[in-house]
Structure formats: C-alpha cells, structure tokens
Amino acid sequence: MMRLGRFLFLLAILDQGLSFGQPAESPTGKRELRAAWIATLTNIDWPSRPGLPVADQQRELVHLFDEMQRANMNAVFVQVRPCGDAFFPSRWAPWSAYLTGTQGKDPGYDPLDFMIREAHRHNMQLHAWFNPYRVSVKDQLDQLAPNNPARQHPDWVVKYGGKLFYNPGLPKVKDLLVSSIVEVVKKYEIDGVHFDDYFYPYPVAKQEFPDSATYQQYGSGFKNVGDWRRDNVNRLVSEIAARIRAINPSVQFGISPFGVWRNKAVDPSGSDTTSGLTNYDNLYADTRTWIKNGWIDYVAPQLYWAIGFKPAAYEKLVPWWANEVAGTSVHVYVGQAAYRINASSTGGWENPNEMPNQLILNRRYGAVKGSIFFNLKSLLANRLGFLDRLRTDLYKKPALPPARTARESP
Question: Using an 8 Å Cβ cutoff, are 127 and 191 in contact?
C-alpha cells in the first residue's frame, strides 16, 4: 500500500501539471533527498523550550514544516529519543524532559504521532531519529525518572566524560535498544529509523571508557577490545535491520556517521584525510561492514568541512563515500553543515558559495542521492542567503525522494 506521505506528494505534483508516474525533476533532472535534522536534545530546534503548552509546541512544529515545504524539501529527521527518553508513549523509556521540563511527565499528547501526520500533510517523509546509547548529558542517575530503565538497572550504565551511557557490551542493553525501536516500527507509520554519529562516545582526553570488566566477561575470541567494541555495535545494527525488515520492509534504516571512516595513512583503502578522529578507530563504528552486508538502506556521512580544508577536504570525501557504496543498494545522503555557514573557524565558510558549491559537487556523483542539513534552525536562519539560494535556484523545483532499490534481508 502506498504510504500516505508519498500519495499526498504525488497529488501535489499532479496539481502542478506534471504527468502521473514521472518524478518531479530537480535542477539535475533526478530525484533527490532534501532533508534537515530537527534536534530536540536540549531543545536545540524544537520545542523552543520545555514546558510549552501543547498548542504552542504543535504550532512551532507546523511552522518549521511550513518553512521546509517552502524550500521544496521532502524529508525531515526528528530526534524522538535524544537520550534514553522518548517523544512518544513508550514501554522502554520515560517521556523526555525536553517536552515538559520533567522526565517522565506526560505532555498530554503524542508528539511522534503528531509530527508524522504533519510531515505527511506537508508532503515530507518522517524519519524517527534515535540516539541508542546515550542515557543523559549529566552523570547523576538519581535525576532520571523512576521508570527509566537506566535507573532501574544501574549496572547497565557507565559514567564517562560527565555523562551517562548504556554499556554497549552488555547483551541486555542490546535487547533493550532493539525493543525500543521495534516498538516504534510496529506502532507508527514512520518512513525511516535513523541513527546519528554517537555509538561509543567521542573520546575524552585522559579518560578510558570504563568497560574493561565487560570485556573480560564477554570479549573472549576477540584479538583486542577495539574488535570487540565494533562487534557490539555491529550486532546492534544488524539485529535492528533484520527486525525492521521483518515488521515493515518499507521502513528505511539509515545511519549518519562521522565523516571519516579511516585515514589513508592507517588503512590504504581509507580516505585521503588526516583526521584526528575516525569512525573505525575511535567510535568503533565500522560503516564499511554495514554497507557491505546491506544492513542499512542509506549512509549519511557528516561531511562538515569546507572544500579545500586539508585535514578532511569535502571534495575528497564525497567521491570516497560514493565509491564505498558502489555495487550495493545503499544510497549516500551527505550530512551538510548548515550550522557552520558564516560561523566556523575552519575556513571557507564565510564564502556564500561554499554550501551551494557543495550541493553542485554532490550532483556529479550518481551514488549521492541528496542531502540532510544540520540543523534546521541554522538552515532557516538564512545565513549568507543560503536558504534563499535553495528556494530560488538549487531547490527551485520540487523533487521526490530517491526511489528505493532492491536489497536482501540481512
């Protein structure tokens, strides 16, 4: 059955006088994803503050969707589980404090249900964005809601860098996280399940991630702790992929990792970069394995650097990622740094043509099927006139999201 959002979008295309069955063309004559992230962590994008009345929360979200629709965008990625909490009634997580100001307090409506209906009404896909391992941006367990699984099972949680995380090496943690996502796939008409770049946490200077006891218990058969950690993440990703496809094969599963897998100096097959941090070696996220095994439908590397930036040049990373998915059914959607436009010290971002040039470069590679902008508030700020450029040039005509390609169940 055709999903509601896609049906409404086709009706909108018909109203513009285009023939049925033909995708609306972007300036390149192709379908492409045109999306943005709406971050709810610490109320970055929405709601503007905790504790707003329901009508105000809903009004704010509709306004954001209105603005996206004006720019001919066709998908939105909303953070529905920012840190061990939920923007929907859940058996596996308490209500988010970013809704009401108090974790566990019912906001009086179902925000996820509302955002799905509104996104589809605005002819956009709705991808539910989860942060699986982060429990809290503070490190006090007693500040969590009494029904928070992390508080009920403190042995599942580790403190690191002033924050709380679920221990990825524990099988019970994996089971909890899988259940929390299966719950959403079964209950809601979402278009996708989405993870960002947070797997094992970003390294904190002079601090070791405290999982040595867990490694001793579960790490037999692995050469080192790094291989074991990558296997923990791989197990989570592969199981979620399998469960999603068993429940509803039309739901996409994608991940937006840090933009560098490995540097060429460490691995000849890595990118021509000198990044001080990489997915494989520091975050224990082996994106190559996910792609080759077909566990994900798309990869959205966060390429948050300018063209010509020597340690991680945008024009070198785009073809590297395009080559990674060659011969697979996996799409590349580039994570674009709208937040850096006219606000970054890394160079290049004061140029009003930097981001337009990045989108133009993307369209040279067939494997690159579109963009996701972080974050929506930065995009709507129209820094250096970039939003105007989208509306009048780069996204002047509407476009359907990319067609799904056939893939086997994992």
Answer: yes
Task: With respect to residue 196, please indicate whether it lies within any of the assigned structural domains.
Answer: yes
By residue count, the chain amounts to: 410
Q: Structure pTM?
A: 0.92
In the block, tokens 């009048």 appear at: 392
Longest Cα–Cα distance in the chain = 65
Alpha-carbon separation of residue 246 from 9, 131, 202, 335 (angstroms): 27, 22, 32, 28
On whether residue 68 sits in a domain, the answer given is yes
Q: Classify burial at 2, counting beta carbons within 10 Å of its beta carbon; exposed 0-12, middle 13-18, buried 19 or more.
A: exposed
CA 47, distance to chain mean position in Å, is: 18
DSSP classification of residue 162: T
Question: Is residue 129 helix, strand or coil?
Answer: strand
> Residue 96's domain is classified under what CATH number?
3.20.20.80
Residue 262 per-residue DSSP state: -
409 is a domain residue: no
The reply to whether 399 falls in a domain is no
User: In which element (H, E) is residue 377 found?
Assistant: helix 376-380
How far apart CA 196 and CA 111 sit, in angstroms, is 20
pLDDT in tens, 87-131: 999 999 999 999 999 999 999 999 999 999 999 999 999 999 999
Q: What confidence tier does 345 reach under pLDDT thresholds 50, 70, 90?
A: confident
Q: Which two tokens stand for residue 57?
A: 């929360």
Domain that holds residue 276: 4-394
Report the distance separating Cα 38 and Cα 36, nearest Å. 7
DSSP annotation of 164 reads: E
Q: Give the type of residue at 383.
A: R
Tokens read off for 380? 């709507």
Which amino acid makes up residue 104? G
**How many domains is the chain partitioned into structurally?**
1
